[in-house]
Design goal:
The complex is a heterodimer of chains A (about 240) and B (about 325). With about 240 residues, chain A is α+β, with helices and mostly antiparallel strands. Chain A contains 6 helices and 5 strands, in the order αααββααβαββ. In chain A, strand 1 and strand 2 form a beta hairpin.
Chain lengths: ~240, ~325
């Protein structure tokens, strides 16, 4: 039998009683939403879960059926794509897939009018970017320079992104020229690691892209840089399909 | 004929009953509340770290120039962000300060439901502005958790809202809620879909078949936060870790629902995400995935762990005999 708690005197603050266990009515005795409400909520739940499932399923390689259902076409995105975009659930969740890749680093030099270096650096860089989450954001900048833009070739998209980085550095340091390169850092194989090879050996680095942006380029729109020829170097597409050199 | 019809009717009737039990059985909001507190803390920290680089990442001429991001989102009308329309530093900082206040309020459970809605909208505002470019799994899970938190009574326990209700003399009893159950079920199913596709994606990579993927992850110096190069001497160990990761991800959606296999599935989650947090420099991502996994912990287990602490806080704060949570 339950005690009548309301007849108990209130405990003074200085001598608190042990916490009283709550009593909750059995779940089955509680009111659920009505039948119509449950029907409507069920329809929404089915739609939502179908959309959440279709988002990763529609990532390449995928079937035409799934792709058009989930994404629609470039001219007319599907209702589902709009829903997924609006809620930011348009993801593939392919963590470390198809396989963990090599790392990437961005190196830069910013020069003044007399061609003297006024800033030099790289990212990601543990010494400069702290805490670790901040480092990871810069790491992602270096990694995601290869992500595709709609209606642009991969190499063109990479140039566009990296020119954007160079232009940001120009503005930040008020320089007259930025030289920037993106290096790929291959992973040491277990065998090479056991042989005592240095994971930072120069042979494990490969320059994928280098560019120059000048102060005069800042008057051009961002998208214009993709159609100009790189000042030197340019895009170098990966030679190794695996992460080892 | 009538037997067939009857059997069909019974089948759909029992399907509807099972569906109702799964989605609409009221549940104690303890699990949802603890997820609110921890996800709120993660949202607050994630966005606090942006403070130093606010202009560099979210300004119009930052690392990811607004013009390029608009092109990247071309045709994606609903991929929205306030930062696509705000260019002045004053505007950026105003949104940022409001966002930090909202995430903090969500963490401590002040106006929890309203804060959950605002937190979801603000988290998307940040995430879309840096997608693609600087986003990663943390942003996806942060937004996902915020989205489901706003569907249920996420401030019913372990919150300032709760302390206020007690101070005002409102009943200590917390009613089980169908909305809390819907929110928790959605987190559970979303987690299952995440792991399923994470596993399926790995099947496309040879390294997840030949057993070297874990080595390739820990030997990547840009990721590495713990020197794990000693693993090179233990081929079988990194092979085993690779295979376990794939099979665990692929079968998570099956074995997490069984009461006997669930502890094993969750234990491996702690090992995998703990490993990512410690060795691969992604403490935030590892932790946020574990917060998502909390959806599979029963409200009674959460209460056993959290109520003694909550009781002390509430007894210290409220001059009356109160209940935990």
């Amino acid at each position: 039998m339950r005690k009548n708690r309301s007849k108990q005197p209130a405990n003074p603050v200085s001598q608190p009683a042990p916490p009283v266990r709550e009593t909750s009515p059995p779940a089955e005795n509680l009111r659920r939403p009505g039948l119509v409400a449950r029907g409507l909520i069920s329809a929404l739940l089915l739609w939502h879960l179908f959309a959440v499932f279709m988002a990763p399923l529609s990532l390449p390689p995928t079937s035409q059926l799934v792709s058009e259902l989930a994404q629609g076409g470039p001219a007319a995105p599907s209702l589902m794509q709009g829903y997924l975009d609006a809620l930011y659930i348009n993801h593939g969740y392919h963590f470390f897939a198809p396989e963990p890749g090599p790392g990437h680093l961005i190196h830069y030099d910013v020069l003044d009018d007399r061609r003297q270096k006024i800033a030099t650096g790289k990212f990601p860089d543990l010494k400069e970017y702290w805490p670790r989450l901040r480092y990871h954001r810069y790491f992602m900048l270096a990694e995601q320079a290869e992500l595709p833009f709609p209606n642009r070739e991969a190499a063109e998209a990479q140039k566009l992104v990296l020119d954007g980085y160079a232009r940001h550095l120009l503005r930040r340091h008020d320089g007259s020229e930025t030289r920037l390169r993106r290096d790929r850092h291959y992973i040491l194989s277990p065998k090479d690691s056991l042989n005592g090879d240095d994971p930072n050996d120069r042979g494990l680095f490969e320059t994928m892209f280098q560019t120059v942006q000048r102060a005069s380029d800042l008057t051009q729109p961002e998208s214009a840089s993709a159609t100009r020829q790189p000042a030197y170097g340019g895009v170098h597409l990966p030679t190794s399909p695996r992460s080892y050199r | 004929m009538s037997i067939g019809l009857g059997a069909t009717r019974d089948y759909w009737s029992s399907v509807w009953q099972a569906w109702n039990r799964f989605w609409f059985t009221p549940t104690d909001p303890a699990t949802l509340s603890i997820i609110r507190m921890l996800a709120g803390a993660m949202l607050f920290y994630t966005h606090l770290v942006w403070t130093r680089d606010l202009g560099a990442f979210f300004g119009p001429d930052g690392w990811l120039p607004l013009e390029l991001m608009r092109e990247a989102h071309a045709g994606r009308t609903f991929a929205w962000s306030l930062f696509f329309h705000i260019e002045s530093p004053v505007g950026l900082w105003t949104v940022h300060i409001i966002a930090l206040i909202v995430f903090f309020c969500l963490m401590v459970g002040l106006f929890s439901r309203v804060m959950a809605i605002l937190a979801f909208l603000l988290a998307i505002t940040y995430a879309n502005r840096i997608t693609p470019g600087a986003y990663f799994g943390l942003d996806k899970i942060n937004c996902m958790l915020a989205m489901y938190l706003m569907l249920g009574p996420c401030g019913a326990r372990y919150s300032i809202d709760r302390l206020w209700r007690m101070r005002r003399g409102k009943a200590a009893t917390i009613l089980p809620s169908s909305a809390a159950n819907v929110a928790i079920r959605l987190i559970q199913l979303h987690m299952c879909i995440i792991y399923l596709f994470s596993g399926l994606g790995k099947l496309q990579g040879p390294a997840w078949w030949d057993g070297e993927a874990v080595w390739m992850s820990v030997a990547n110096l840009e990721y590495q936060s713990l020197d794990m190069m000693w693993l090179a001497r233990h081929t079988w160990l990194y092979n085993l870790m690779t295979h376990v990761t794939v099979f665990w991800e692929l079968t998570y959606a099956v074995f997490i629902w069984n009461r006997y296999t669930r502890p094993w599935v969750l234990s491996i989650a702690v090992l995998v995400h703990g490993g990512i947090a410690l060795a691969l420099g992604m403490a935030t991502f590892g932790l946020v995935m574990l917060i998502g996994n909390l959806a599979f912990i029963s409200p009674s287990a959460i209460q056993r762990l959290a109520n003694p602490i909550a009781s002390r806080i509430s007894l210290a704060s409220v001059a009356r005999d109160g209940a935990g949570g």
